[in-house]
Amino acid sequence: MPDTLAGLLQVGALIAALALCYRPLGTYIAHVFTSERDLRVERGIYRAVGIDPRGDQAWRTYAVSLLAFSVAGLVLLYALQRLQDHLPWSLGLPDVAPDLAFNTAASFVTNTNWQAYSGEATMGHLVQMAGLAVQNFLSAAVGLAVAVALIRGFTRSRTGRLGNFWVDLTRGTIRVLLPLAVVAAVALILLGVVQNLSGGVDATTLTGGHQTIPGGPVASQEAIKELGTNGGGFFNANAAHPFENPNPVSNLFEVFLLLLIPVCLTRTFGVLVGDVRQGYAVLAAMAVIWVIMLAAVWAIEAAHPTTAYDVVGAAMEGKETRIGVPGSALFAVSTTGTSTGAVNSFHSSFSPVGGGLLMLNMGLGEVAPGGVGTGLYGMLVLAILTVFIAGLMVGRTPELLGKKLRAREIKLVALTILTMPLLVLGFTALALSLPGPRESILNTGPHGLSEVLYAYLSGANNNGSAFAGLSANTPFYNITIGLAMLLGRFVPIVLVLALAGSLASQVPVPRTAGTLPTRGPLFVGMLAVVTFIVAGLTFFPALALGPLAEGL
Amino acid sequence: MSLTSTLRGGLTQLAAAARFLGVLTVLLGLAYPLALTGFARVVVPHRADGALVERDGTVVGSALVGQSFAGDASYFQSRPSAAGDGYDPLASGASNLSPENPDLVATVRQRIADVAAFDGVDPAEVAPDAVLASGSGLDPHISPEYAEQQVARVARTRKLAPATVRSLVADSTTGRTLGFLGEPRVNVLELNLALDGLED
């Protein structure tokens, strides 16, 4: 079978699998967040921690609960790493240094999973299981809660109350993420992903060399790492490692897992606002961007117009034999279009323009289809901007789903959109202007700039993938990328919750002939174009100095 | 809401958050992974432990993890590796070099010359994966093209008929799953074990 056809069939199988899950899972998640009934285990949790599950919170209280929960997660994860040497299952690994422990705690609590450390050489089994993997669940549940809160901003009126953060967090974890993760982990185990508590097995190779074959609870972590769009590898090589991703079936399954919830959440949105076609419109805009990015990256990697690959005839540096070019391009576009950041190939060795497109994909704000929750609320923020721009063109007060978009809403949207670029470009400029941080760069010339730009794009967008030539485990990068991750996560979250509160307090306006329909192809096209224009205008100069200067 | 009441509310929330985190850590951080470890141990113990390969009672590696064959002409060679000093499973990773990096271009040209001389083939015929390192540094596979490139050299060194070696290569070759997933590939450790097995 020709390579291109095989690659297309692979993409087709992925889309078919997602389509099959779209309605049942999306509708189920909508039910989870509207059900009046608590499960017995949930009631047990509420009793144990002393929460009134019926307490409806205004946006400020919702935000304070969310931030308090994230602070607690940050402290626990930091402590687990700093005390590793004194805890069981440490595999004899020492305590993690303070700056690296801060960076890693910020990274996992913000759903980023940027890894300035090498998993097999730094983290024992207890920190991986009880520290990192727990945040893989909880950071995704937080994202889910914010998305649901924003939807309630549209569906509720004259209240300002957004629901209960603790209930949303618990339900997202217990009813959505945990059952899906169990099923996914079982499937991964059956597909050959390792799952044990071994401290490593000594092997004598055929030529008399020595290898230590590592172990660990990999499949259980891999499942939630992809499902929760986290991306932090158990091992340094992430999903390129044959223990995390042993064959082409596990590879496609992992891409499916990382796209699953973000895609199906558009259905949840449609169901909750009482018009599933609204959900289709948001999904269509996400899909348009994903398809354009995939086609471009795949075509460039297949054509490999670069010096080293012209010499040998294929772009296989940093790519695995079993996965090949199409499977690597598919994973790379999906992982940077969500906030996952897992990799099955190393983006720094992509053709420069291909690597630049992966950076742009993050620069779009990761909305194709975005992280768990973050993708949906990111796209809804862009939808508000789109309606606003359209409203300016025809001179009408813009409205979306029966809610007026007044100065307050547009200010919150503008601040949300501006936060990430400010962090990315500010920190990149700072790092490049100081001599110390420049020494961390591996590749000289424009690619060196790309390494630093990629790092902050990845951090501020809570992606976690890297142009990994950059030696990022220094106090400067650990602290600045840690701050980029925290601010890039929580500033937009607070702004989006404020937006939700503002929308929920409004009196709905009736649809009129002047209302812009937000479910047809016209709106889908405008939304995709606005997404590209916002990021394009923001990042084109930086991308021109990095990947474009290198590749063209 | 005033600032002080927000702060006081925040402290109450923090206490609730700590309790929540404790309960969920036990569930998600211990019960979940340990239950799955138990499941794996019962259902697929061999694979869950890393598909370890034994010969004469000694572990010689993992079917999933590549290893170096140290330029021994009687063995099929793996891809170049950026994991530690090469195929170190405790240091998985890639070179992260840009394809425009002059160092990588020079390295690739040198490897082409070395591999062509080693395998006795035309430099223009050298397979891409013979000179480019994988993402994990632990790639257990090579392409069928790179395997074919090595057949004559291995057969000559082992004094075997090329057809014999070629049939072992075919035995260790996996095609695309369902005809379209992934890429055709040859498991190098499995192939070399089969070669050694011929002499027993």
TrEMBL record, chain A:
Ranges annotated as spanning the membrane: 62-80, 137-155, 176-194, 252-273, 280-300, 367-392, 412-434, 476-501, 522-544
Keyword Cell membrane belongs to the record: yes
Top-level lineage group: Bacteria
Main location: membrane
Keyword annotations of the record: Cell membrane, Ion transport, Membrane, Potassium, Potassium transport, Transmembrane, Transmembrane helix, Transport
InterPro entries: KdpA
Subcellular localization: Cell membrane
Membrane-topology annotation of the record: Multi-pass membrane protein
Subunit structure: The system is composed of three essential subunits: KdpA, KdpB and KdpC.
Alphabetical list of NCBIfam families matching this protein: kdpA
Family, similarity comment: Belongs to the KdpA family.
Role: Part of the high-affinity ATP-driven potassium transport (or Kdp) system, which catalyzes the hydrolysis of ATP coupled with the electrogenic transport of potassium into the cytoplasm. This subunit binds the extracellular potassium ions and delivers the ions to the membrane domain of KdpB through an intramembrane tunnel.
Entry protein name: Potassium-transporting ATPase potassium-binding subunit
Organism: Nocardioides daeguensis
Gene: kdpA
TrEMBL record, chain B:
Role according to the record: Part of the high-affinity ATP-driven potassium transport (or Kdp) system, which catalyzes the hydrolysis of ATP coupled with the electrogenic transport of potassium into the cytoplasm. This subunit acts as a catalytic chaperone that increases the ATP-binding affinity of the ATP-hydrolyzing subunit KdpB by the formation of a transient KdpB/KdpC/ATP ternary complex.
Membrane topology according to the record: Single-pass membrane protein
Origin species: Nocardioides daeguensis
Cellular compartments annotated: Cell membrane
PANTHER family attached to this UniProt entry: POTASSIUM-TRANSPORTING ATPASE C CHAIN, POTASSIUM-TRANSPORTING ATPASE KDPC SUBUNIT
Transmembrane segments: 20-44
Entry's family note: Belongs to the KdpC family.
Organism taxonomic ancestry: Bacteria, Bacillati, Actinomycetota, Actinomycetes, Propionibacteriales
Subunit structure: The system is composed of three essential subunits: KdpA, KdpB and KdpC.
InterPro entries found in the cross-reference section: KdpC
Keywords of this entry: ATP-binding, Cell membrane, Ion transport, Membrane, Nucleotide-binding, Potassium, Potassium transport, Transmembrane, Transmembrane helix, Transport
Protein name: Potassium-transporting ATPase KdpC subunit
Origin superkingdom: Bacteria
Pfam families: KdpC
